[in-house]
Amino acid sequence: MLDWTLIDTVLLDMDGTLLDLHFDNHFWLELIPSKLAQKHNISFAEAKADLAVRYQAVEGNIQWYCLDYWQKELSLPIIALKREIQHLIAIREDVPEFLNALKTSGKKLILLTNAHPDSLSLKIERTQIDKYLNEIISTHEFGVSKEHQSLWQQLEQRLQFDKKRTLFVDDSLTILESAKTFGIKHLLAVANPDSKKATNTINQFPAITNYRDLLPIT
């Protein structure tokens, strides 16, 4: 699927790519509606409908990923609530072997996530995936998310990577399209980001369900 001799830099998404997306889906689609329903004395269904409108209004923009934004918007203690269910934060079981192989091969490994720094810190604390990585970047440092070309332009200036010799892995097709538009040569989708949900059918990009299928790395 991949010719590793053509790749020097590996950009990796976090949620749904290295970590199980179940934590995030449960948090935003189950826990937050439940807390909002309690707060306003409305039904769970009403809370979900209200949130769906709010989510859609900022989806794909940095606010969608910003915990400060949602704390203010919903008047809920977002960080504290994440810690309530932090036991659900989990690294994909096929990831350590994959990251070890990448590290051993000498590839430059960079975590590139839209996650808010507070969420990122919590997940690093729980999973310790930082030990495999050369660099960890939250797009909040740039004020714009991976869906936008200005992020990729700023990232290239900062990292000085060769986009023709770079692999980018993500579970979001929208974000993969953004990377493709920018000119990242090697793109890979994760078809099973949430361990509790069915595998997605992906035709637009090469896709994997198990990182072991990419081994060995040369």
Features:
218 residues; alpha/beta; Rossmann fold; 2 domains; 6-stranded parallel beta sheet; 6 strands
List the helices and strands and how they pair.
Elements: E1 9-12, H1 22-40, H2 44-58, H3 67-74, H4 78-84, H5 95-105, E2 108-113, H6 117-127, E3 135-138, H7 149-159, E4 166-170, H8 173-182, E5 186-190, E6 207-208
Parallel strand pairs: 1-2, 1-4, 2-3, 4-5, 5-6
Helix pairs in contact: 1-2
Number of strands: 6
> What's the oligomerization state?
single chain
Report the structural category.
Answer: alpha/beta
The major sheet is characterized as: 6 strands, parallel
Whole-number radius of gyration? 18 Å
> Under CATH, the topology of the largest domain is which?
Rossmann fold
How many separate structural domains?
A: 2
Mean pLDDT: 97
Q: What is the straight-line distance between the termini?
A: 13 Å
CATH level-4 homologous superfamily of the largest domain: HAD superfamily/HAD-like
CATH class of the largest domain: Alpha Beta
Number of helices: 8
Low-confidence regions: none
What topology, given as strand order, has the largest sheet? 3-2-1-4-5-6
Shape field: globular
CATH architecture of the largest domain: 3-Layer(aba) Sandwich
Helix content: 40-55%
Strand content: 5-15%
The H-and-E topology, N to C, reads as: EHHHHHEHEHEHEE
3D structure, described in words:
This protein is an alpha/beta fold and 218 residues long. The protein folds into two domains: 4-21 and 90-214, HAD superfamily/HAD-like (Rossmann fold), CATH 3.40.50; 23-87, no CATH class. The protein is 42% helix and 12% strand. It has eight helices and six strands, in the order βαααααβαβαβαββ. The chain has helices at 22-40, 44-58, 67-74, 78-84, 95-105, 117-127, 149-159, 173-182; strands at residues 9-12, 108-113, 135-138, 166-170, 186-190, 207-208. Strands 3-2-1-4-5-6 form a six-stranded parallel β-sheet, with helices on both faces. Helix 8 (173-182) links the parallel strand 4 and strand 5.
